[in-house]
Give the backbone structure.
Amino acid sequence: MKIKNGAEYIESLRKIKPIIYYKGERIKDVTRHPSTAPHVRAAAMTYALASDKEYRDLATATSHLTGKTIGRFTHVHQCIEDLIKKIKLFRVLGQKTGTCFQRCVGFDGINAVYSVVYEIDQKYGTDYFERFKKWLIYIQEENLMVVGAMTDPKGNRSKGPADQPDPDQYVHVVERRSDGIVIRGAKLHMTGAVNSHEILVMPTTAMDERSKDYAVICAIPIDTQGITLIFGRQTSDDRRDKRERIDVGKPSFGAVGGEAVIAFEDVFVPKERIFMDGETEFTSPLVYRFAAHHRANYGACKTGLMDVLIGAVSYLTQIQGTAKASHVKDKVTEMIHLCETLYSSSIACSAEGWPTASGAYMVDTMLANVCKQNVTRFHFEVARLAVDLAGGFLATLPSQYDLESEDVGYLVKKYFSGVEGIPTKHRIKIARLIEAMTGGTALVESMHGAGSPQAQRIMILREGNLEKKINLAKALLGIPQKKSDS
Amino acid sequence: MKIKNGAEYIESLRKIKPIIYYKGERIKDVTRHPSTAPHVRAAAMTYALASDKEYRDLATATSHLTGKTIGRFTHVHQCIEDLIKKIKLFRVLGQKTGTCFQRCVGFDGINAVYSVVYEIDQKYGTDYFERFKKWLIYIQEENLMVVGAMTDPKGNRSKGPADQPDPDQYVHVVERRSDGIVIRGAKLHMTGAVNSHEILVMPTTAMDERSKDYAVICAIPIDTQGITLIFGRQTSDDRRDKRERIDVGKPSFGAVGGEAVIAFEDVFVPKERIFMDGETEFTSPLVYRFAAHHRANYGACKTGLMDVLIGAVSYLTQIQGTAKASHVKDKVTEMIHLCETLYSSSIACSAEGWPTASGAYMVDTMLANVCKQNVTRFHFEVARLAVDLAGGFLATLPSQYDLESEDVGYLVKKYFSGVEGIPTKHRIKIARLIEAMTGGTALVESMHGAGSPQAQRIMILREGNLEKKINLAKALLGIPQKKSDS
Amino acid sequence: MKIKNGAEYIESLRKIKPIIYYKGERIKDVTRHPSTAPHVRAAAMTYALASDKEYRDLATATSHLTGKTIGRFTHVHQCIEDLIKKIKLFRVLGQKTGTCFQRCVGFDGINAVYSVVYEIDQKYGTDYFERFKKWLIYIQEENLMVVGAMTDPKGNRSKGPADQPDPDQYVHVVERRSDGIVIRGAKLHMTGAVNSHEILVMPTTAMDERSKDYAVICAIPIDTQGITLIFGRQTSDDRRDKRERIDVGKPSFGAVGGEAVIAFEDVFVPKERIFMDGETEFTSPLVYRFAAHHRANYGACKTGLMDVLIGAVSYLTQIQGTAKASHVKDKVTEMIHLCETLYSSSIACSAEGWPTASGAYMVDTMLANVCKQNVTRFHFEVARLAVDLAGGFLATLPSQYDLESEDVGYLVKKYFSGVEGIPTKHRIKIARLIEAMTGGTALVESMHGAGSPQAQRIMILREGNLEKKINLAKALLGIPQKKSDS
Amino acid sequence: MKIKNGAEYIESLRKIKPIIYYKGERIKDVTRHPSTAPHVRAAAMTYALASDKEYRDLATATSHLTGKTIGRFTHVHQCIEDLIKKIKLFRVLGQKTGTCFQRCVGFDGINAVYSVVYEIDQKYGTDYFERFKKWLIYIQEENLMVVGAMTDPKGNRSKGPADQPDPDQYVHVVERRSDGIVIRGAKLHMTGAVNSHEILVMPTTAMDERSKDYAVICAIPIDTQGITLIFGRQTSDDRRDKRERIDVGKPSFGAVGGEAVIAFEDVFVPKERIFMDGETEFTSPLVYRFAAHHRANYGACKTGLMDVLIGAVSYLTQIQGTAKASHVKDKVTEMIHLCETLYSSSIACSAEGWPTASGAYMVDTMLANVCKQNVTRFHFEVARLAVDLAGGFLATLPSQYDLESEDVGYLVKKYFSGVEGIPTKHRIKIARLIEAMTGGTALVESMHGAGSPQAQRIMILREGNLEKKINLAKALLGIPQKKSDS
């Protein structure tokens, strides 16, 4: 693995020149621009842990393709232990960054594509799997960051890809040449896109026969001609952009991953980088496997974040002299309880993992969906409890400029102090951290990342096997079970 | 009433020169400074409705002191109908501003102080009530905006006022002169303070004998010598400060009320403006009555906000083509249900209103506390559902600069469109409105405004009359009731 | 009012001989049969309060038809005060019986029918209103108990009345004669039916043109030929039937109201007792008005029950020595909070009452539906908290026969004791009361009485006025509102 | 293993004669008495599965003591796989019985005692471990059912064992002889006690030095002199006792496990059956380990029950014609979601299992407590949703005697029918099953079995490692961490 640590990752980004816009201007260097650098630093942590003795076992793996040591984010899960290590790694990364480290999307994309293209080849005698392995060995050797690009704009959501007035609302093939294809469209909400090396394009939903041109998987370097990225806004992003070290909340890292639109304006993809082209019946397993892997993560990375948040709130109650109140302890207990309930599902869906035909391991689909569904509830409740315990000054605290002002700084210091002996600045920093972690973008991401809540409910019902459950009830009552049931 | 509409209110603010700091700089004119003007406009709406035929009945009242028509915000409730009209007025104001209109704090302060100082005079033969009525007539005639100043910094919260290492953590009298008193301390989270004319200082908690100097009620013009205001930060406030009309969410109004620290550095208060000085046993009813009135409001103003939010989400689902999905309708139903549950308690605590000895009407304490307690839960849940229905682009949407960019504007317009015929700009504006109304400051205010959740629980238990309930159970079982019970 | 107290009511029941079956046997005298007597006693309380000085003002009213004093349960609401008194009366009755007192169904039926048949006459020139007033004066003079009979069996719920394979799944007219009609069908879940004097038959749902025969309102004495009642089972009903005074929980009153099937096998109804016959477009307002009145009650009677339950739990924690634990106090607080939230909506929908064309007052539909919807959640949560605080012995406690056994009674007394000085029997009685009030039938009734939860959600969405809310959002953003919106 | 199947287990019970009282009478044969037989049958299922090819792998294990095949319920977990198999076995048993199969308590007792007495010996050089292994080999060889006896009466709960006015409120040693001890006291809520062979007595809470006599572990045959059992009541137990095959809900099995008081009136325990006597500092780990194992089970057995309940409700909605309504599908989805969330924690706490010094495997304490805590919430919510979907007739349905009555049976059949072609009897049986599984005892057990909710919260906070979490927050903010933290 060529990129061995965070510094080398950052260095590698400086060598590529993707076209990125933000607030109407081009960003030249994502590693130095104040709006993107904090997100780069969070992704860099995924590289850093691989060179940290304490975490090396979690952060690296042995490639089943080459036998070499690789970054875990480029690995195809070979066993249940791999699945569980992923979860533990993600919780640590959440704890160390307090934010999204972005690289899981490509990781999950690699794993979903690997097992599905194997099955396409089995059915059609295509050579997608060989192409994909070649590309994957390249990614492993270079240790590149891949953005898993799935979500299309979707236009009018009451219509499918083939029925949109504007055909570009889903990424599709607009031209087929002997040496490759040309694609058009866009992917939205692309976490980590601006600081990735490669894009792994995948279909966003199960397609039918009429949508053959939309059933495409391929890999594209981020700085390929025809690709434009537009970096999105986040809650209170100006504090980040103005490098306000206190008011920004997390001085080193971003609110969440830093998402971007990736627009593909007639982008050429050479043959060896195409891994699906028109095999519509495989879009459904691709999406479900990707989604299951991705949903499993949320009980890991978000519980890492919650650990930070619980710690922040606990420290704040110590500063304010309320830590021993019974209702405070009860609310902290509830935060921990919800956090660990989420973690349970991440661990459980991994412990219940199973091998696909390709040998790659999948998590349990039901439990992974259950995991994400709970995140869309519990992260909000944990945030609500944090806001409760922190107090109203989260919403009324003067700025760091006032704290440091010659005119009024002494008033801020005096009137935002807590128990004696702890600097007011600690209280303010903690408040800003809690503010940053509990409002706006931070929670929207937990709601919609890895699919909106309704997407999980559809899977939970589908996996629920109602027929079997009905027969259990019938058996207890001596009611004959349907023939087809048995 | 001298100030008859919004424009006159704004004009009146230009004539006073309070000392206000924000981000380390002085604000010279709150009506024009981009950080405060939106909050001024929201408060101006309370004046505007009084001159609007449709709302005049709600927005004005007849003074029981002078018989003149006055702005309702300066009125002392004389009957249940007054209490209910307040609730209806506040819901309309919430609907028309989508934010906090700030002026209720002084309104509730006036009503709480009125009934309590009457009772002080009854007990001690003091003349606070006469002083207060004189001041109140002045407020009514001029139609001034009063900030109700209750919340002290509190320092180490495990200790009371008299035990703080720094005595200034609660506002207190530092000197008594023949013609008045000198006070020191600060009040935090002062909603609307920077655009108020007068401060009504009240104690923040029930005091004991040792805290005589802290038991003080008085009125002070906002630009009195010794008063400094520091205006607090809010989520994404730079968008407001940079006058970003789309990205700010609400182009005309603020996120919430605009809160400030009010520091009192040895401020002199003349005798005729002192309404309590040392009568510690009345601090408790003062706080509870103020709190009850104030907590009653939250099922009115916040339901007004929720009406806007529900409308915004409904429109967005129409734009996105999801409005008819059954889970969408169910979530919208839930938002309405929670909203109207809150409204129920505001109406109910008013319908169960009762006259104090002074003749001023109080809301039912239990139901008012129940109201606010539910706000600390339901506003978060309503926001969560809004975020669910809106979609992930809330957190990843490019800025208005990109929308308007020559380079990438066409991509933003294309890829953030919805059903045909509705401009992408509508979708984006609605998204920014929802973003502004569901994250950060907007919700913290619902949690802690009018007292933190635990404060309501204490009141709910206290008002719960467990002895009576125990006797009901005993009666059903034929178990003898305690003598003292009957 | 002829029946002036509970004893006279019970006496009156002995004079009529409806056909009632229970567990395969006929019940001859509902006032003495152990399975029905407790329910009779609860209904008798509605009569008893009218002769109790403390409650007379709530329990009686002045007839707007005759000017005489009547039992409130036979009154047509003439003002908001009437609506609020109903709520207060119901809470007291809930407190005094700890169960369903049944008589509200007929009360609400009378009020809904009164206002709707007035409107039928206005449209069609029929004389239903005069007929109804005559019948109502009779009910008022005699002070009879009326069962409001609405819910039909419904057969296959995916089909309407006219499409059922068995036409009798909804009550309908099978013959029209010059002097009256003959009806067939059944009404299910008829609360208080076995101890009522009269049945007020109403359609169960909005009917279309094809269902003319199903659109029928009429009044029938309970012992009319062709009527058969089958009394339903309840949780642990054998304890009641065996007159186990301790283990039954409530020694004097039933679990809930005592529900019965009423089967109509070709029952003749004379002309003067028919109040609707085929005016299908009035079935919808009839159902909605009845439902709104009835749903409003649940925040009154159920909060009365919750008062008893909170009292029982509080006393039990005193007996067990846990009353002062902070988590116990917090859970009791939560029980009170949920209870009073429900009460809020009952009060609020009454305070927002409005006059129909007939002069009869209606509650606010939205808030009444919100009330009942919350009951379907909160009663379960209150019960869950009660079970939590009571302890596991609720589920494992030996019987009263063991308590009184010569062989093992001393062991039960010894090992189920609590703090010194309180008899073990108190602890056991309280446990049985809590058991009876928190499991099975008691909660099912809160879920489905006055309509299942989904019925309320449909009304909440319908009343939600989304168009107006959308315009509020548009107004804030300067987006043009639809013409039709204004 | 001598007892090889359910029939042999039942046979074995007929050979012992414990003293059991129920409703004031002695029960002579628990296998035939209608009140206990259903519970015996559920326990028999644990034996039956061992001889069922499909489940043998789950239901048996290889003894690490003898190398022989044993029933899993007598096994000491040797690895993570053992822990996971236990969970899967319990879910199957829950599905097949729809109730508590009781035998887990002794299973968990064996596992907790095994690891703790090993550690006592390590510290004190005692020979408890050898004694225990001998006894355990006997249990394994005979394949006996052991009741784990932990919960004491506790008297006044604000006082510990040593401070109770009545010393017998906790089981304690009243005499020490050379050949053994004599104990007195009682254990409450003893699941499966009346149909167990042996009692494993354990302390109920952490003891201090003053409570040496209360720190006792020992094993006693159920029919030892001085032992009296009193079998407790359950919701609607008369239906069971009267062998009402339909109205009872589950015709073959009980509501829950069948709990009894075990009173010890000076019971002698020989030396070789004493495994702790006075080593108070080991009561704490004993209780926590037992509790953790036991709490882990609830996400397995209860999810088995929920599978049955979800199936019953699904079938009922098919019968009623509502299965395709979107709100019905959504509620079924929610039931599955909650069920699988619980299962996650059972799997996860097993997957995170760890070896004790003795080699026996423990589950993860945090996740096991999280599991049970959620059961105390989700089982109620799942039941609430079941009641919602089932409909109000759960609470009003006539008895099976009416269904079969010559007089009114045709009315019951007609008016409780659903969609054509499904017998009314199916609908009624399903309703009675749902009634039995959602009210009263069934839910109380989920609340308090394996410890009341507050017990789990104490453990969750204790295991939450707040210091570490505080340091995570400090690290992100550059705030120095406490020395002692590292």
About this structure: The mean pLDDT of chain C is 97. Chain C touches chain B through 63 residues (CB under 8 Å). Chain C is about 45% helix and 15% strand.
